[in-house]
């Protein structure tokens, strides 16, 4: 950049950089899973003393600054944030936006052009929106899992809202978790691509939607065991098992790089769990 | 459709159809504002006895079914749901995804092709992601506003969780609302397109991000009045005023078609409000 050019924080990088807190999987994990599944290179910048200044100050990250991590620096130098937004942005590039976008990308690789006015682009965008929709619903569940241990004030300790947490946990175990599981079970049952026992939420490939169904088993082992035993949600549990056995995610787990859940978004407090 | 074709619920329609609960603005209002601002025709289907069967059963809405309203039926016949997903999908079509997408759309209208491998498409998608990011952050605030009156169980009445609501309201008024307002104020200050007193969150046009900053003044009139008086968030309040004076939204309000807030997402309970 010449000295006379206006300052811009968009500097091209070699690849994707994830900005997130160290030590917990948290919401950053959903981004990691997308990169790991697709085998796409990314690095992490998780110095906790620099994280917030880097991503919230537009002098460092460009306009607009970000409300909270995770943020992702794109190869163009642009930063984006909000977990479902990051996933939706990278989905076509990582092959996680469904069959139709994968086909468009293959055409591109063969040197063919794909016009944004074409029917094939329209249909791929509709499928990408279905993926994003399912991702948002799964993230709603994970947000509700978080709110079980923080029902009244996100800035206070769990220990200062234990009584309210117990009440919210009852609602979560009895009503909310089964409602979400029933939704995803129904989606797995109605996917026409699942005729031969496949467990894809949408299209005939793993998408971001499949990768974000996670966490409840860690936080509520007794309740999820009981729900599993009911046999009503077997496709949802099968989906999770299938994802963990697939290429990139399998390696991520086996190489010990996946951080265990601990005290982040999902937390296991035995007093909040129960068989029903 | 011939009798031998497999049943598909994707039937072309004349336009967009919004499926949402009657009688409250709720989350459906964010979708209405996008259509109203851009002057794009849409109809509503809000028969409460048919709403959930229509949008949750894939026999009626196609795969995948939806977790909750609002849902939008596209002209292609496809249904999509999740408020931020609907907004992100329609944003380029309604001119609400930022300057760069508007330019692409103009090129299209002139009969020019826009390839998904082009730099101009890449940059427009980055800007669209910035819009979506800001929308998601504003919707996080509206979700937190909802959780103030439903901190422990969404399926129970407010009256059954009043004590917990009071505690959550304190956190919302003191910490959360100011934190979000400060974020949007900072975004308005750093937007290079706002040099001449403009109040766009991103680019030099109204986007979906500008349209979703709403609701807190109804639910917490005393607290928002105090925050307004502090002078720290004047650009955010100016944004809201500007949006309400713009073409489509102005007509929507003046023609009496905009429903008042009542007992939905945003609720005014005086006991949850306060000057600080």
UniProtKB/TrEMBL annotation, chains A, B:
One BP term from GO: glutathione metabolic process
Database matches in InterPro entries: Glutathione-S-Trfase_C-like, Glutathione-S-Trfase_C_sf, Glutathione_S-Trfase_N, GST_C, GST_superfamily, Thioredoxin-like_sf
- Show the SUPFAM superfamilies listed in the entry: GST C-terminal domain-like, Thioredoxin-like
In terms of superkingdom, the source organism counts as: Eukaryota
Q: Which CDD domains match?
A: GST_C_Sigma_like
Q: Name one Pfam family in it.
A: GST_C_3
What are the GO MF terms of this UniProt record? Answer: glutathione transferase activity
**Location of the GST C-terminal domain:** 124-272
Q: Where is the GST N-terminal domain?
A: 14-98
The name on file for this protein is: Glutathione S-transferase
The source organism is: Cerrena zonata
């Amino acid at each position: 950049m010449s000295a006379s050019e206006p300052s811009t924080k968009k500097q091209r990088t070699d690849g994707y950089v994830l900005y997130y807190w160290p030590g917990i999987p948290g919401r950053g994990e959903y981004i990691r899973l997308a990169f790991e599944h697709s085998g796409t290179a990314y690095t992490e910048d998780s110095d906790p003393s620099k994280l917030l200044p880097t991503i919230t100050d537009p002098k460092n990250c460009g306009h607009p600054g970000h409300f909270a991590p995770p943020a992702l620096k794109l190869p163009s130098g642009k930063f984006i944030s909000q977990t479902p937004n990051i996933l939706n942005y990278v989905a076509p590039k990582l092959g996680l936006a469904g069959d139709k976008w994968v086909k468009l990308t293959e055409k591109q690789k063969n040197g063919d052009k794909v016009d944004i006015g074409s029917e094939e682009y329209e249909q791929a965008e509709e499928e990408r929106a279905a993926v994003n929709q399912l991702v948002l619903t799964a993230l709603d569940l994970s947000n509700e899992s978080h709110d079980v241990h923080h029902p009244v004030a996100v800035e206070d300790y769990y220990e200062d809202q234990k009584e309210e947490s117990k009440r919210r946990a009852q609602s979560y175990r009895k009503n909310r978790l089964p409602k979400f599981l029933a939704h995803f079970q129904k989606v797995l049952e109605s996917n026409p691509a699942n005729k031969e026992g496949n467990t894809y939420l949408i299209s005939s490939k793993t998408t971001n939607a499949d990768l974000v169904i996670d966490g409840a088993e860690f936080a509520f082992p007794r309740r999820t065991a009981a729900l599993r035993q009911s046999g009503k949600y077997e496709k949802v549990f099968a989906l999770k098992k299938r994802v963990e056995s697939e290429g990139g995610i399998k390696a991520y787990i086996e190489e010990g790089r996946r951080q265990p859940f601990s005290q982040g978004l999902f937390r296991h407090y035995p007093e909040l769990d129960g068989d029903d």
